[in-house]
Design brief:
The chain is mostly helical and 336 residues long. It is 56% helix and 3% strand.
């Protein structure tokens, strides 16, 4: 990460006085977007972008009853305990190495990856990517605490699912995901309708295979966005950004957790696909003669947080179709 200006830490400090959600339960995407902007060489835009974005945010809610290690299960999935969970993880990260805290809590939180429309795991993925490549400053550790706390408070498991016949690859598996019958309303009633997924990530795999297949899933989801984004241009972003958050986190985790991480990432991507996929695809529209750097600069100028994050993930994948997918997001999502 090229950030010799301290921009990321300054932006995170500004954002940590705000809550993970606002205006009901909309997600605060600020930390994820500013991390993407800084990493993508757009640090000079960050504070101006944040001046606009933070106007919609709510203050961090007050802490109530502390979460304690002895009965953490009782507070899991309770959004009223958002601030309590964040304080819990701030203390844990002050007392122990961040990798140890992550390794302990990752398998506990992983079954609830769909919670908060997958935003908590995405926030954790951005925080971990920073910690893996830069110094663990206080704001960067605090950001991991906020992400983990948000995930714990919004922890939500999917209903029991039937495993459908598998597909030979991730792209085929995503194509085979059944759409929910009623695609009206928010994500919660949509997820409640899901009954079955293709068993693409079922069964044990060795860690290296899990990582390879996770990368395949991210690539397939990005490319599928180029032809299916019209189902819901904002929400279908998460079919790619959620598994990419898991992929970015793998290097910080014990290899023994990589297989379960693949299964959870597949469940998250497939769930959002089921909830928002359109009935039929459209042809890919070329991005034209644009470089990855130029594409991300366009995303930064566009200013929408989802478009920025999707461009960040699309550039991880690379290639003509990925650039076309990121360009489609800029076309379909309203600019900030």
């Amino acid at each position: 990460m090229d950030d010799n200006t301290g921009t990321l830490d300054e932006a995170l400090e500004r954002l940590h006085v705000t809550g993970p959600e606002f205006d009901g339960w909309l997600t605060n995407h600020g930390p994820m977007a500013v991390e993407s902007l800084v990493r993508g060489g757009q640090a000079p835009r960050v504070h101006r972008w944040l001046d606009h974005y933070e106007q919609r945010l709510d203050a961090m809610p007050a802490a109530g009853s502390p979460v304690v290690a002895a009965d953490w299960q009782e507070a899991l999935g309770d959004p009223r305990r958002l601030a309590d969970w964040i304080v819990f993880f701030e203390r844990a990260l002050a007392e122990r190495p961040w990798r140890d805290v992550l390794a302990e809590w990752w398998p506990r939180l992983l079954p609830g990856i769909a919670g908060g429309a997958t935003h908590p795991v995405i926030r954790v993925g951005h925080a971990v990517r920073t910690l893996l490549t830069t110094e663990p400053t206080e704001p960067r550790l605090a950001e991991l605490a906020h992400g983990l706390g948000y995930w714990a408070a919004r922890h939500q498991t999917l209903p029991a699912l039937t495993s459908l016949p598998s597909a030979p690859d991730a792209a085929g598996a995503l194509d085979a995901v059944p759409r929910v019958a009623d695609q009206s309303g928010g994500i919660r009633p949509r997820l409640a309708q899901i009954e079955a997924f293709p068993g693409w990530a079922a069964g044990p795999v060795d860690p290296d295979t899990a990582r390879e297949r996770l990368g395949e899933l991210v690539s397939a989801a990005v490319r599928r966005y180029a032809t299916h984004a019209h189902g819901n241009a904002v929400m279908l972003v998460h079919t790619a950004t959620a598994p990419n958050a898991v992929l970015r986190t793998l290097p910080a985790l014990p290899r023994s957790l990589w297989g379960a991480s693949l299964g959870a990432a597949w469940a998250a991507s497939a769930a959002v696909t089921a909830a928002y996929a359109p009935a039929a695809p459209v042809p890919v529209v070329s991005a034209g003669d644009v470089s990855p750097g130029e594409l991300f600069e366009r995303a930064a100028a566009h200013g929408d947080d989802h478009a920025i994050k999707f461009a960040d993930t699309a550039l991880d994948v690379g290639g003509e179709v990925a650039l076309a997918a990121a360009t489609r997001a800029l076309t379909l999502i309203d600019p900030a």
